[in-house]
Amino acid sequence: MKQTQKNCKKLMSSSLLMLSLFGILVASPTFVMARVSTMKTTIAQITVTGKVTDSRNTPLEGISVTVKGAKTAVITDAKGIFTISTSDNGTLVFSAVGFLTKEVAVKNNKLINVVLTEQVSSLSDVVVVGYGTQSKKDLTGAVSQIKATQLENENPRSVGDMLRGNAPGLDVGFDASTKGSNASLQIRGKGTLTASSSPLIVLDGVIYPGGLEDINPNDIATIDILKDASSAAVFGARSANGVILISTKKGKSGKPIITFNDNIGFNKLANKPHLLDGNEMLDFRAEAIWSMMGYDSTSKPGMKYRYQNPTKLPSGSISQADWMALTGATGDVTTEWLNRLRLKPVEIANYQAGKMLDWEKLIYNDNALQHDHTVSIAQRRDDYNYYLSLGYLTNEGLTVGDTYKTFRTRLNLEATAAKFLTVGMNFQFSNRDESSIPVNLSDVTRTTPWGSYYAADGVTLRTSPNDDPGNNTHPFMDQTYTDRMYQYNNFFGSLYAKGKLPFGFSYQVNFSPRYDFLMQFNHQSALNPTIAAKKGVVDRRNQTTYSWQLDNILRWNQKLDKHTIEATFLFNAEKFQSWNSTMHAENFAPNDNLSFHSVQSGTLPATIASDDQMATGDALMGRINYNYDQKYFLTATARRDGYSAFGQQNPRATFPSVAISWALNEEKFMKGTQKWLDYAKLRVSYGENGNREIGRYAALSNLSSGTYVFVTSGGAAYNGSTVASSNLSNPSLKWERNSAINSGIDYSILNGKVSGSIDYYVRTTKDLLVNRSLPTVTGFSSILVNLGEVENKGFEMSMNTVNLERKNLTWKSTISFWLNRNKINHLYGATPDYDPATGKQIGSSEKDDLTNQWFIGHSISSVYNYGIQGVWQVADAALAKSYGYKPGDMRLVDLNNDGAYTIADKQFLGETTPKYSWNLRNDFRIYKNFDFSFTLYAKIGQLSSFSEATNSLLNGGNVFYDRANFYKIPYWTPSNPINDYAGIASNVGGPVSWNVFRPSSFVRLSNASLAYNVPSQLAKKWKFDNVKFYVNIVNAHVFTNWIYFDPENKNGTSGGAPTPYNVNFGLNITL
Amino acid sequence: MKNNIKYFSIFAYLLMVVVSSCNKDWLTPKPLSIYSPENTFVDATGFKAALGASAKNIRDEFFGDGAPIITENIFSDISVEGTDDKTGPAQNLDLLIRPDAQLNSADFNRIGWYWDQEWIGVRMANTIITRLPLAKALSDAERNSFMGQAYFFRAYNYYRLTNQFGDIPCPITEITTAKVDFATVKRDVILKRMKTDLEYAVQYVPWTGDKGTVNRGACYHLLTKINLALGLFDDAIASSTALINNGAYKLMTARFGVDAAISTKNVTWDLHRPDNKSAAANTEVLMLVTDRLGSAGAFGVGTNLGTRIMRQAVPGISIGTNIVTPNGKAGAAATGGNEIDIMNLYGRGIGRCRSTPYEYKDIWDDVKDLRHDSTSGNYMFMENVRYFAPALKTADPTYYGARMQLYDSKGKLLCADTLRSWYPWPHYKLYVPDTEANPMQGGHTDWYVFRLAETYLLRAEAYVWKGDMASAAADINVVRTRAKCSPYTASQVTGIGTILDERARELYWEEPRKTELTRIAYIFANTGKSYNGKTYTANSFSTSNFMVDRILEKNIFYRTNFVTLHNDMMKISQYHVLWPIPQSAILGNTGGRINQNVGYSGAELNVPALDKIPEQ
User: Fold this and answer.
1) Inter-axis angle of helices B469-482 and B496-506, to 10 degrees?
2) Consecutive H or E run containing A325
């Protein structure tokens, strides 16, 4: 042991010696040059002092102040003060990370105060790249960064909100729910047919298996998005869809900083179509029935007035008596009219009593409240730093009773245990309460304004407000009679130790466990009239998930002359386990008053089930970053992954990548450009990545078991067991393999006033994990296999500009634009073609998959359907009939003009993914203390399904128009022969099945915010470091031709939540 | 340095943990909650469970919303689709029955359901048949019995498939890889193989067993159907006689079971009580399927529980204001629990499976027939139902509680939709009390698949084909006299029509009517026998056949091209004798050609069907 110690000492001292020699070598030219210059000059030297502040007048510490052309350099102190010696006609250069560099001519001034402008994006920004960090300048791949601090005034409610509109190439979906975390994320197009296309989430350096809703956006410092294959390759087999790295906040040096961030907002309804009220509904109903009758007015004179209000018959039409005689009716005319409109007795009674239900008022909760409170404390000291936060969010939905609550806390702690050893922990706990039960919106359109809210007793909800229980149930039924507790608790932590080793080595180990506890308890009360016969129904589900990862990371840094080498090696292991139990009980006795707490009181045998799962994985990874003279950069990685889902025949796979970049501006021949060009770098990379996101046991044949009742000869019934395979096994299943080339350029011009990146990529995914359709003759519908090839090609550009820099106004913009072209190259390979006459094979070709709507040479999101050329008009009735339709129905295109609609008439109508997307963000600082910003994003050129135009399919589902209500949209009638909407209850079936698609391009003003920073002197007076008030509007406006709800969120008629816009008021205080 | 040592040892320790956890098995998949074929199909318990799954697989035909058997009924003389408030229901079959149309939906039809589910049945049976010889833990007796039972399930599904879809592929071993090169095999070839299999089964499957499992009686019964399908009438007489004469099974002729003490009821009522179908006393049942409230294997999810049979087949009394009193007031309510609780007496019907006048009127030739008797409550007529809307108590007290009438005194029609809301129905079959839905929709019950009554009718049919009308009458009379009808004389048996009428009387919602009509149509085509003076050939099967002629003769809706309130026309064509092969099956079979039936688009690409079943 002693010997080892000695050796160590020796090694350390020798390396120290080497280092100091280096120092001397590097420093000596400076020394020499300085001497030369003093010898040459006779110009007067003066001493300049001054103060450097930011645009809010806050002193800036640590700003580098240099004399241009000389090597003199100082930095500002804690009060922003500097003192430097320079020539009287020299120029001072002020620079620092995160600020635009500023040059000021001395002109014999001895006092120079400088205001520096914050940069939107800087080349010296530190970017997280997976198992390490790099400065942006050293990157070889395509990485976008989002700084959370820039979004503070926008009150992002979820990670998705932070990502939306802020990164090129990243498509963030729309989630209008109160939870708001299920917005889909997709980087650079869809490269898979059936596996998940969501990017990998990495939280503080560790692969994060949890949900984004458990991360408090207020805790986030930066988000980095690895888009090209080479930068993502360090995450190998899991990175085919790109990687999103989230870094949380750490302590800052100085005293403990306490921050309160509180905001209250209102959710309001956006773009809501009007739901017909009672009288509008009667007109609509008359039209609907008349339409269903085929507008048959020939059978009797006056028939066309049959459904019209007999008390308001147009003059000169028919008399009330004739109107009654149309059906041989006697008695009250209004009752007869309402009978003809198929109103139920309760509806007729309410109409006659003038009692109308205003469903819009009943179901919507306009001005729904949203509270978001986060308090944090953070500090950095020499030997430790910490960040602790507590956050509470409650969000009410736009429909009555919809509420989401979450409590989240985080502790980031790091301590220096010894000079060479740092230990730390990042810990996150969250609790989510998702117990609320929203109003059933699809039942709102299935009932009418003329129903009754309550049953005859005036207390119980009416089973069906208009007494049509087979068609609708009271929209509030579930909410009123269900007792629900859906609680989710989870812990995610990462414990780590990192140590320095000799020879430039360092070692880090992370252990990252995650526990997830889920309780879903549900009790449908026996008081609920729809299930009264079941005497109470209880469902309970408990699931515990425990997963862990272990990362061992060894790093080596060496700098030799102009060569810088950094090597990273990783050994990783992971395990996932979950235990799930469900139970179901009915028929409670003596009663179900104990809610879900007493399953054993259900008198029918309870159904219980369990499903436990387990998966394991491991990985080895090596990466080398090399650069020569900060000019030529090389990154090479290789990762070998193992995963148990592929464990039968292909447990492991290797994913390599390489990337090079070249800092052009450093070259001699670029000297002439130095005036305006700060920086330019060319990048090229190639990499392979994998996708493993399928079921943990997808490769195995699953023998599903169940029970079935048999009866003995004595008549006694018993449960026998049943087993049958539910899928074909595929032991040779393996990873999807993605290979991508990316080339790009990063640039910065005019002292950082304009900077940005341009990228072009081609990404090919092979061995797609696909549920291949099988002929059902096999008894299986599909088998999971690796086959086919999908290609994504795209272009991205982003640009940060400083447009205006005045004393009282700065204006900065970030603009990005991208497009992605998706194409299926191969599916199942060539298969034989047969001669129809002889049945002999005459060749082979590759076929499309019509079942799954996958077409070779076309995008995955292609819409292959029948073209709609308008609506069948009365004049074309005979022709319509020959096709199986009638006037008022949608008119399909008969592509081959053969007089019938067949599969041959289908055509490619477009795609459901956008052709182009762009983001535009503008930040203004006015009079030092006001910050104003707004963000626009756009998706252009996509189609969305609009089956509602048939006036027969509400949200894709068949609707009984003679029994339901509807939203107000146009409809065809013989006297209103429009061409874009069909008649009410039009024929949506017929010989072929089809759907209506309409363009849904839009530009959304997704956020506008205004903040006021109380001047720091005033804040100080109030004993605060910083006080800020802000107001912002989320989803302020959408510019589009789409008319039905929202172009990104057609929900609102069933299941999903309608689209909100939010107005938030916030207060941010730092102590 | 001390710290260095400590640090190195921590590092070494962690590395050890990591390395030791990564043993050879680290990446072997470990299914915790799922069984695998390798460790399940090894002993009697495993195979019994596999046979249990096969038994359960044939159950769903009779259950749930839009139960598949409705599609069998509407492709026949006894019913049409009555849903007339939306697009989709199979009424204009020319328009809606196409290879790439929606073929598996409660709102459309269930042709695709049959196709999928029957192939699943074939697959389940093939798995058992392939794996049985490999299981060493079985005795010969067990193995032979299990093999016979698996043969039964395979034959059951192929019998249905060949009479629904005609010539089809015929896998006979377990499929373990992505097989996509199937070829179509001739129907006769498949059925001959099934006959051989069942002749094996009737030697080894025990005569009786637990109800819900396969017994020898069911095997003989199915063998009889296949013998008939092959035109082997003597074999059919032999196989049915073997079953009838064995004595293990007898028709129920005396009162029994749960309602035996209710004197106003009768044996026909008893036979169809949910609790009586698998009762020890019931000697008539050969094969049944089970569905018990509260059992984990009970049919259904969500609100689609149990048979839903009253919802499907009872008229839509409560739909809209279809039924009004002579004073023009709504006569019915859709809610359960009213003072006159019609919705919980007969269920809330929607008239989806609408009987034809042939089924509820024309065939009833004996007023004593218990199967059509309304006085005992077996059969229900709309005139037996009372106006029950609670609002009538004040709005129209004269008619509140009065019997419903179709016309008022002046002859004005009082029902706005007679297709859907006005027709009689066999209450004794459809009444399945429902404790889960209010109003009732039709609850859980066992359901007959094969009854001995049908065996008699199958033998009677064989005699008819042979021209032995006296023997045929004798067999028919066994069934008729049990229902208290007067027996037929031999001269009253006029031909196959007599058999079909008796089947319609006895086997409503039990027999797969379309399957049987197609089977008979094949016999006509293959034998050249005449029906109503017309003969048929196999070559012109899809342009002229007995089945569609019979439907056009007896089913007034298709014959007259009845137009519904939704403006849909009832229409059937000759080629509908065979259902279309779903396009997805043809498309997925990229390595070969599965033929389409003539009359449907794609049939022009057909290649000759095989004369031999491929072994793989």
Assistant:
1) 20
2) helix A320-325
pLDDT tens string B251-275: 999 999 999 999 999 999 999 999 9
- Smallest CA-to-CA distance from B172 within B142, B148, B202, B151 is with B151
Contact list, B318 vs chain A (CB under 8 Å): 470
Q: What is the pLDDT of residue A829?
A: 82
pLDDT per residue as tens digits for the range B385-403:
999 999 899 889 999 999 9
Q: B342 φ, ψ to 5°? A: -55, -40
Chain B residues close to A345, C-beta within 8 Å: 329-330, 333, 389, 391, 395
* Three-state secondary structure call for residue A631: coil
Among B15, B171, B292, the residue with its CB nearest the CB of A552 is B15
Helices (H) and strands (E) in chain B, counts: 24, 8
- Quick check: B436 and A533 CB within 8 A? yes
Show the low-confidence residues of chain B (pLDDT under 50): 1, 20
Residue of A585, A617, A407, A561 lying closest to A491 (CA atoms): A407
Per-chain mean pLDDT for chain B: 93
DSSP B36-104: -HHHHTTSHHHHHHHHHHHHHHTGGGG-STT-THHHHHHTSSSEEE---SSS-SSSBHHHH--TTS--S
Residue with tokens 């580098």: A64
* A465: nearest CA partner in chain B: B335
Query: For residue B449, what are its two tokens?
Result: 């698949």
State the DSSP code for B595: P
Do the bridges between strand A890-892 and strand A906-911 make them parallel or antiparallel, or are there none, so unpaired? unpaired
Which residue in A331, A701, A851 is closest to B37 by CB distance?
Answer: A701
Asked if B505 and B364 count as a contact pair (C-beta separation under 8 A), the reply is: yes
Three-state SS string over B287-312 comes to EEECCCCCCCCCCEECCEECCCHHHH
Q: In this structure, what token pair is assigned to residue A879? A: 């022709």
Q: What is d(CA B593, CA B206) in angstroms, rounded to the nearest whole number?
A: 40
Alpha helices in A129-212 (DSSP H): 159-163
Task: Pick the residue of B1, B27, B177, B184 with the most A CBs within 10 A to test the interface with A by mutation.
Answer: B27
Q: Please report the sign of the dihedral spanned by the C-alpha atoms of residue A868, residue A869, residue A875, residue A879.
A: negative
Inter-chain touch B590–A828, beta carbons under 8 Å: yes
What is the ipTM for the molecules in this complex? 0.94
Q: Measured between alpha carbons, how far is residue A150 from residues A155, A606, A924, A1049, B535 in Å? A: 11, 54, 12, 27, 86
pLDDT by 10-residue block (mean), chain A, 1071 residues: 44 40 36 40 75 80 83 83 84 80 83 78 72 79 83 84 85 82 82 83 89 90 86 81 90 85 88 85 89 74 85 86 84 88 90 92 87 91 91 90 93 90 93 91 88 91 87 90 95 92 89 95 92 90 95 90 91 94 93 93 87 93 90 91 88 92 86 84 91 87 90 92 90 90 90 89 91 89 89 93 87 92 89 72 82 89 93 92 88 91 89 93 90 93 90 72 84 92 84 86 93 87 88 91 84 62 90 84
pLDDT tens sequence across A409-463? 999 999 998 888 999 999 999 999 999 998 888 888 888 999 999 988 888 899 8
* Min Cα–Cα distance to chain B from A272, Å: 27
- Residue B480 has a pLDDT of 97
Check CB contact under 8 Å for A776 and B115: yes
Got the DSSP string for A146-159? EEGGGGGGG---SH
Query: SS3 breakdown of chain A: % helix, strand, coil, rounded to 5?
Result: 15, 45, 35
Q: What per-residue confidence (pLDDT) applies to B15?
A: 57
Compute the distance between CA of residue A1034 and CA of residue A1044 in angstroms, rounded to an integer. Answer: 20
